[in-house]
């Protein structure tokens, strides 16, 4: 086993450890600044509510999934197996963490392949960085027999990472992968939010599915700064757009994309707000990882089932039988979010 692989593998373990260390029950994703208006005559039964939606063109039964977080080491392979067991039991999709390490070191493949082995019938989402070409992207898909592939944009994380990349020429790769890959592609941030100007560039590259991944959840600037000897990059701890801001900023481009919302999602009300603001689905990482670590697979299964039931109850309370109807609901913005939305214009 090479020293370089051991170093890369250790970094994967560090990421999970620090993500849990910095986990917060209450987040600054901006969703608390959005207020919903009661519907006092809902005229609906909970049994009428349909939670189904789409994820990159694939029909899914509920509007949330286990988003990217794990894989690349023996320990994170075990985490992936447990996450996949919960996903299989609850019939929700699951994304792996970045497979880049497995493309370089084949011994890391088992930590990702375990996901498909554990959920043979489920919707599995692979993950690589935007520095990879089409051949690498197809290899990542084949490794998992993946139904979809996330391609992450993580320039801010790489900048803070001592051993991170310093060259970010990604557009040609994205265009090639979107045009030639055997499965649909989701382009995602890693917690700093995707701006409207970036969306317009992605549209020209043929991208149609985007995970906006706003600030407020797992903070990779903070995680990578913790790994730096001098801890000298705290200046980026609050960098980027929040989850609420990314959703508001993307609304003018809704006709061109299917949006995933992610970043600090903590409960069913957060999910509802994301759907009202224009997301087709919601990715959850930190909450699910924290629950798995504290309560094991059964605890995560219970949480997922509770979220499903609460979503149905909340939609009935709002008088909405489906997610399309949620999009028609009025809502109120805090002065700060309203100011942000006005400045966008």
UniProtKB/TrEMBL annotation:
Substrate binds at residues 11-12, 157. Residues 28-100, 149-328 form the FMN-dependent dehydrogenase domain. Its EC number is 5.3.3.2. Gene3D superfamilies: Aldolase class I. GO terms for molecular function: FMN binding; isopentenyl-diphosphate delta-isomerase activity; magnesium ion binding; NADPH binding; oxidoreductase activity. Pfam families: FMN_dh. One of its GO terms (biological process) is isoprenoid biosynthetic process. Its cofactor is Mg(2+); NADPH; FMN. Keywords: Cytoplasm, Flavoprotein, FMN, Isomerase, Isoprene biosynthesis, Magnesium, Metal-binding, NADP. FMN binds at residues 98, 127, 188, 213, 218, 264-266, 285-286. It is found in: Cytoplasm. Mg(2+) binds at residue 158. It catalyses: isopentenyl diphosphate = dimethylallyl diphosphate. InterPro entries: Aldolase_TIM (IPR013785), FMN-dep_DH (IPR000262), IPdP_isomerase (IPR011179). It comes from the Bacteria. GO terms for cellular component: cytoplasm. Belongs to the IPP isomerase type 2 family. Homooctamer. Dimer of tetramers. Involved in the biosynthesis of isoprenoids. Catalyzes the 1,3-allylic rearrangement of the homoallylic substrate isopentenyl (IPP) to its allylic isomer, dimethylallyl diphosphate (DMAPP). PANTHER family: ISOPENTENYL-DIPHOSPHATE DELTA-ISOMERASE. This is Isopentenyl-diphosphate delta-isomerase.
